[in-house]
């Protein structure tokens, strides 16, 4: 069973940002190619280069590729742009798999935007093929799933089931989950929504509690997003509620 715990730092794929995150003593780094790294092909390639050149260390690292549905216009096949997610995984596996696997550190990914167990199954099949092409042992590439929609919240158990031994665990992001909730509820004329949705809304707490229950039952970790408040009591609350660690921006 692989369970990570402690403080998790979100960082861009940039040399300075990586060095700063490592220096802050985080237990694990999340290198975000989707949102934190500046958009653009040149920035993406520079980010991968920074990961290649980063000094070896004992800090585990998760890399978040862009979504499968996003295009990478810099590479065309048959006149059509390839999937940005597939492009990112190809770069990660081709350039980073050997040094990371030699240190027993993956590659490990964080996959966001999964809306159902069918998408989790697709990702699992993609990673199976990537391992085979790269000559990696089955299960070398592992993945944490970021829960960012209401439907994914309902299918946490099924999502982990599709990933099986490849699953590292679950994390929950409040902002996209809240946006998903609003998109869902506005389609119902009888739904009454508050003028302002509190970031600690009850449905988010329910989803977090379910995440902890599902993840721990399957022997994986449950990581919370750090509260907006920096008060020690607020930062401690997700841990007291069963989460194994906190993602810090």
In short:
The chain contains nine helices and ten strands. It is an alpha/beta fold and 249 residues long.
Order of helices and strands: EHEHEEEHEHEHHEHHEHE
Shape: globular
Distance between the termini: 27 Å
Q: How many domain modules?
A: 1
CATH homologous superfamily title = Malate synthase, domain 3
Percentage of residues in helical conformation? 40-55%
Mean pLDDT over the residues: 86
> How many DSSP H or I helices?
9
Taking all Cα atoms into account, the compactness measure Rg is: 18 Å
- The CATH architecture can be given as Alpha-Beta Barrel
Strand content: 15-25%
Total E-strand runs: 10
Structural class comes to alpha/beta
Largest beta sheet: strand ordering: 1-2-3-6-7-8-9-10
Mind telling me the CATH class?
Answer: Alpha Beta
Stretches where pLDDT is under 50 for at least 5 consecutive residues are none
User: What quaternary form is this?
Assistant: single chain
Task: Provide the descriptors you would attach to this structure in a database record.
249 residues; TIM Barrel; 8-stranded parallel beta barrel; two-stranded antiparallel sheet; 44% helix; malate synthase
